[in-house]
Amino acid sequence: MEHSGRRPDTAHLLRLARHLTDRDHRVLSLLRTHRVLTTPQIAQVAFTSHSRAVQRLRVLTGLGLVARFRPRRDRGSAPWHYVIDTIGAHVLAANDGTDVERSRVRQDRQLAVARSTHLEHRVGANGFFTALIAAARTGGRAELGEWLNATDTAERVDAHCGEWGIGLPHPDGYGHWAEGDRSVEFFLEWDTGTETHRQLTRKMERYADFTGAAVRAVPWVLFVFPTPRRETNARGALRRVEGVGRVPVATAHLSGAQDPNTAVWSPLSPSRGLDRVALIELVSVEVIV
DNA sequence: ATTTCGTGTCCAGTCCTGAC
DNA sequence: GTCAGGACTGGACACGAAAT
């Protein structure tokens, strides 16, 4: 993990404030909320060129606003992974007028992110949302109106549920995607191919219970798989879950440079095969209740 | 040893913005 | 209008690791 090693003091923060752009603040805010993002992901959401993103992130690292690490990879070299550093957290806290002490970024927590066995999962799920933001930036009338991390999504799940006593699902994120006057809400389930079918069906059972207890319309549940084969097998397992018909579920396998807003989604409704629709088209797909 | 893949680094030139 | 400083762009190159 590369840190600047600096401790924040008022004079240093004042000097920094003069040099930071609105975009720098946005990057820091994203890192605070979503914990870890790679260079390409940050470039997608905040920069117009990859090399400019690389240059600016090096500057922010040197200033102690962000810290970075590179996980080991089997093939080639991994991109730099960025997390917010202590000074970056102080800058945001000063900006928000929040308690500086509460913003303290503990290095052991940063290391925990870097060493987490869930790192690939977290980065993958974040990449899903940054790809949507990138698509919106180039796509005219499209917009990712909201992007919640797993923790904040849990609160959103609670908000949809009128009764207690059921096992609530734990999505990897929540999003609100809009194109023109149409919009779709969704929970994301990012699959890295490591879970058993039993674990997947248990998840699906929770969504079925949740849909039954919900006091208002439930967002789409989007399962993303790493390969077509994994998706086909998982769909078979998910279909066997009791009550799945009332849950708005769609699946996709995303590989390479496929954008998640395009026609990659296959609703799980029993009557449908594997015909793919764009994310925004899910609003017109009927769900059997 | 060489190639391939996926990434970061460096640098020269250009653009933008604010001060004078 | 000129100047300076910072931001941006695109291309060339380097690096680490696996595959050939």
Explain this structure.
- It is a single chain.
- This protein has 289 residues and is of the alpha+beta class.
- The protein has two domains: 107 residues, Winged helix-like DNA-binding domain superfamily/Winged helix DNA-binding domain (Arc Repressor Mutant, subunit A), CATH 1.10.10; 164 residues, no CATH class.
- Helices cover 43% and strands 16% of the residues.
- It has a six-stranded mixed sheet with strand order 4-5-6-7-8-9. The protein has a three-stranded antiparallel sheet with strand order 1-3-2.
- The longest helix has 20 residues.
- The chain is elongated and about 60 Å long.
- The model has no long low-confidence stretch (mean pLDDT 79).
- The chain binds a DNA duplex (20 and 20 nucleotides) through helix 4.
- InterPro entries: Replic_Relax, WH-like_DNA-bd_sf, WH_DNA-bd_sf.
- It comes from Nocardiopsis metallicus.
Describe, in short, the structure shown:
The chain has 289 residues and is an alpha+beta fold.
Task: Chart the SSEs and their pairings.
Elements lengths: L9 H10 L2 H13 L2 E2 H8 L3 H13 L3 E4 L11 E4 L1 H11 L10 H9 L3 H20 L3 E7 L1 H11 L12 E7 L2 E9 L6 H17 L6 E6 L2 H12 L9 E5 L12 E2 L22
Parallel strand pairs: 6-7, 7-8
Antiparallel strand pairs: 1-3, 2-3, 4-5, 5-6, 8-9
Helix pairs in contact: 2-5, 3-4, 3-7
The structure holds a DNA duplex (20 and 20 nucleotides).
